[in-house]
Known about the structure:
Elements: H1 6-13, H2 15-24, E1 32-37, E2 41-47, E3 50-55, E4 59-63, E5 69-72, E6 74-78, E7 83-93, E8 97-107, E9 112-123, E10 129-138, E11 149-153, E12 157-160, E13 172-175, E14 178-182, E15 186-197, E16 200-210, E17 215-225, E18 233-244, E19 247-260, E20 264-276, E21 279-286, E22 293-296, E23 299-302, E24 305-309, E25 317-328, E26 339-351, E27 357-374, E28 383-397, E29 400-407, E30 411-415
Antiparallel strand pairs: 1-4, 2-3, 3-6, 4-5, 5-7, 6-7, 7-8, 8-9, 9-10, 10-11, 10-12, 11-14, 12-13, 13-15, 14-15, 15-16, 16-17, 17-18, 18-19, 19-20, 20-21, 20-22, 21-24, 22-23, 23-25, 24-25, 25-26, 26-27, 27-28, 28-29, 28-30
Helix pairs in contact: 1-2
Amino acid sequence: MRRATLLxxxxxxxxxxxxxxxxxxxxRTCFVExxxxxxxxRQLDAGRGFVRWYSGGGVWAHCVGQNTFWYSDxxxxxxxxxxxxxxxxxxxxxxxxxxxxDRASYFLGxxxxxxxxxxxxxxxxxxxxxxxxxxxxxxxxxxxxDTTLLTATQRPTIEYRxxxxxxxxxxxxxxxxxxxxxxxxxxxxxxxxxxxxSDFHGRSxxxxxxxxxxxxxxxxxATVDGGITSGYHLAGRDIRFRLARKKLVWVQxxxxxxxxxxxxxxxxxxxxxxxxxxxIQGGNxxxxxxxxxATSLSTVMVADSLAITAPSQVLEEVRGVGQSVARSRxxxxxxxxxxxxxxxxxxxxxxxxxxxxxxxxxxxxxxxRALYRVYPLGATTPDLSYSRGDRILARxxxxxxxxxxxVGGADGVYLEAxxxxx
Length: 422
């Protein structure tokens, strides 16, 4: 192996110009020194006091006074361009990252590394790994950038981790047309972005994930799905979410928001939920252009705003505030469904005798009204009852109406259906 100190070789070749070169490169932090080469070295005059230096057979180099090293099969040093090219089996390492690639160019004045072909960069602090056909890595540079910046195109894949992740912790898998990683906590993606983990599946045109503040955002045609056991889906033009200890704890969709679970569906301008253990615990919906609507297996509720209580994603209560209406879900042969309305309406759900869950009661307060069918004993054709009062409470058993209480200024109309006499 031949040992060659690049700085010394260049100084001997162009001693008169070296002071000018050092002054032009004063902002840089890396001054290259070649430790050893396994092949013949060549040096060419590049004009204006600069040289170009070439070597092959395996080249080892480092930045003087830094924990920055690299190897490649061959190198080309263009002093006039302040560029150091590495060709073949590139292996670069500094205090922050470790990179492998087929070839790379290091622009010393910018502290920028461009890599191509089977690129793989690992963040040594967090364990995050980026793989793809190319990447651009900006090192910290005093007075220019206070943190590292990594960009990549052509749909790279990121295994995204945090510095405080435990050993074996599951990473987020991020794929996009173009990605950017800033420092150790922030990642962005543009173009058909996907973010996946066993408990989180996000899709959007662009996205942001910042584990430093434990928050993220999915923008344009955004969707979020829970894990296999949770069974929820959330869609909207824009979705924001928050994490706690790397777990999703809050999510909000804006713009034609649509949320579904096994037991219900909720649509509105804006929908937000609280989550725990990968399951929805409750949420709210509101909006102006799209009036909130909640649909369960048996009931539809519409109001100015809605609130859902669903511990462990089991629906217990839907509350409507402001011109609220709850109506039954009947088939298309019904002229009009049963309904209960009021300033506020609360629908509660509970278990049935068969073990399923269904509507157990509806409570309307403030200018309460109700229209519902009543089946007299033995009748197949229902009577029709319309009631008004300050408070109406309708109770159900096994999905059938069993009692209606009207309190405060009660009045109404009861219409008997025509029936044949014997």
